[in-house]
């Protein structure tokens, strides 16, 4: 019996109806458990194969069950109600933002191409988020795809944060969790004197979509006093801007060296679900980009 069938059987034995579906985390297809009880539906719970191997399937299922019970007792006390509310455009219009991820064969999500990646729209629900589907747009929102992305990008612009890279990652290591640093972009442009800096969003989650906002990128380019910006895809959560004095004059060989570094970090350090790209990007202003790849 496959472990997905055993998970379903476990929850059935504990009085719950469950199903295992396929979904996307970052740009990676994963199995996820959806547990139902009365009218409440649990958000997708991604199945962690490594944790199953470490804990054993029975212990892992018990852990998922406890997590489900915790969700039911949290602020999201009636997920059914939330599911109904996200069908209303007035409820979501100020909560949508753009996420950038690798290209997928996801047929459900509303998406469009951005460079060699894809841009999707998510709804910020506080402790969770939901992907806007093509079905939601077509049947309920009654706005065009272009207008929805424009609204989401304008909301995303308001979420931007800028950090010195060393300070950002040292804070991550020190806290081993998401930190509370809050820096307004207008106060942060002084960081452009540093060699490397990080762009993300206020939650520091799925923040790489900031580079989809040409207004932000043009503002950063102007502040840098350079003709172009080199963008390293750190992860789906943030990107790194290379701001060395001679960076705008890097040769193609030098850019390819940086691409090698990106590929190495992705293979050795970044979790597969957090990988954004193995390419390197150059921003020339006015929404004009170059893609550097091996």
Quickly list its features.
37% helix, alpha+beta, single chain, 294 residues, 4-stranded antiparallel sheet, 6-stranded antiparallel sheet, 3 domains, 11 helices
Total number of strands: 14
Order of helices and strands: HEEEEHHHHEEEEHHEHHEHEEHEE
Which structural class should the secondary elements be placed in?
Answer: alpha+beta
Terminal residue distance: 42 Å
Using only C-alpha atoms, the radius of gyration works out to 21 Å
Q: Considering DSSP H and I runs of 4 or more, what fraction of the residues is helical? A: 25-40%
Q: Show unreliable segments.
A: 177-183, 187-193
Provide the domain count: 3
> Could you say which overall geometry the principal axes of the C-alpha atoms support?
globular
Strand count, sense and barrel status of the largest sheet are: 6 strands, antiparallel
Number of helices: 11
Q: Which strand order spans the largest sheet, edge to edge or round the barrel?
A: 9-10-12-11-13-14
What's the rounded overall pLDDT mean? Answer: 84
- The percent range for strand residues is 25-35%
């Amino acid at each position: 019996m496959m472990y997905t069938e055993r998970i379903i059987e476990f929850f059935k034995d504990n009085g719950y109806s469950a199903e295992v579906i396929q979904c996307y985390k970052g740009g990676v297809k994963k199995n996820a458990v959806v547990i139902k009880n009365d009218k409440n539906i649990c958000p997708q719970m991604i199945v962690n194969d490594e944790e199953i191997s470490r804990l054993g399937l029975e212990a892992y299922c018990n852990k998922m069950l406890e997590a489900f019970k915790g969700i039911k007792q949290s602020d999201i006390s009636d997920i059914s109600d939330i599911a109904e509310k996200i069908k209303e455009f007035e409820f979501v219009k100020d909560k949508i933002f753009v996420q950038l991820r690798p290209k997928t064969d996801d047929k459900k999500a509303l998406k469009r191409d951005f460079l060699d990646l894809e841009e999707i729209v998510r709804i910020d629900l506080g402790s969770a988020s939901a992907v806007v589907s093509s079905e939601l747009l077509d049947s309920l929102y009654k706005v065009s795809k272009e207008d929805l992305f424009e609204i989401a990008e304008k909301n995303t612009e308001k979420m931007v944060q800028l950090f010195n890279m060393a300070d950002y990652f040292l804070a991550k290591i020190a806290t081993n969790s998401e930190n509370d640093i809050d820096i307004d972009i207008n106060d942060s442009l002084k960081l452009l004197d540093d060699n490397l800096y990080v762009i993300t969003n206020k939650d520091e989650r799925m923040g790489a979509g900031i580079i989809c906002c040409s207004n932000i990128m043009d503002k950063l380019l102007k502040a840098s006093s350079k003709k172009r910006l080199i963008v390293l895809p750190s992860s789906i959560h943030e990107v790194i801007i290379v701001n060395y004095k001679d960076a705008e004059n890097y040769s193609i060989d030098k850019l390819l060296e940086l691409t090698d570094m990106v590929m190495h970090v992705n293979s050795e350090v970044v979790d597969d679900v957090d990988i954004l790209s193995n390419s390197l990007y150059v921003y020339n202003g006015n929404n004009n980009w170059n893609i550097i790849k091996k």
